[in-house]
Amino acid sequence: MTYVVTDNCIRCKYTDCVEVCPVDCFYEGENFLVIHPDECIDCGVCEPECPAEAIKPDTEPGLDKWLKVNAEYAQVWPNITVKRDPMPEAKEMDGVAGKFEQYFSPEPGQGD
User: Fold this and answer.
1) How far is 38 from 1, CA to CA, in rounded Å?
2) 3-5 and 33-35 as β-strands: parallel, antiparallel, unpaired?
3) pLDDT of 29 above 90
4) Strand partners, 79
5) Could you give all domains of the chain from N- to C-terminal order, each with its CATH number?
6) Where is the 4Fe-4S ferredoxin-type domain positioned along the sequence (predicted)?
7) Residue 2, Cα to own-chain centre: how many angstroms?
8) Which of 21, 26, 55, 98 has the most CB atoms lying inside 10 A of its own CB?
């Protein structure tokens, strides 16, 4: 099992989760975070820290797509270990449906 970041993180990008991760397995895109599935130790401390409830265990049904997205982008985006302010539109974007298709950016974030 590993944890994955799902579409509700897109254009919210709260970083409370990265601050508590004991193995620094979060990677930052322009408007989204991902977890490296091979680095995640399945401790689960990140899940309750996410204000957008975007982090889920990959054992939940229907998360195969998100496991692939997390694995792919963790290979090319920079590592992030420090908490930063969320995106300016985070509150408005929290809970918006279909964010991956509408807003996902494959561009890397700034990382640490």
Assistant:
1) 10
2) unpaired
3) yes
4) 27
5) 3-83 (3.30.70.20)
6) 1-30, 31-60
7) 13
8) 26
Report how far residue 93's alpha carbon sits from residue 9's, in angstroms, rounded to the nearest whole number. Answer: 9
CB atoms within 10 A of CB 7: 22
Contacts 24+ apart (CB under 8 A), 56-62: 56/3, 56/4, 56/6, 57/1, 57/2, 57/3, 57/4, 58/1, 58/2, 58/3, 58/4, 59/1
Q: Residue 71 above 90 pLDDT?
A: yes
Per residue in 44-53, pLDDT tens? 999 999 999 9
Take residue 10 and report the two structure tokens written for it: 């897109």
Q: For 44-85, give the DSSP string.
A: -SSGGG-TT--EEETTSTT-HHHHHHHHHHHTTSPB--S--P
Q: Which residues of 23-38 are buried (b: 16+ CB within 10 A; e: fewer)?
A: eebbbbbbbbbbbbbe
Report, as an integer, the average pLDDT of 66-82: 97
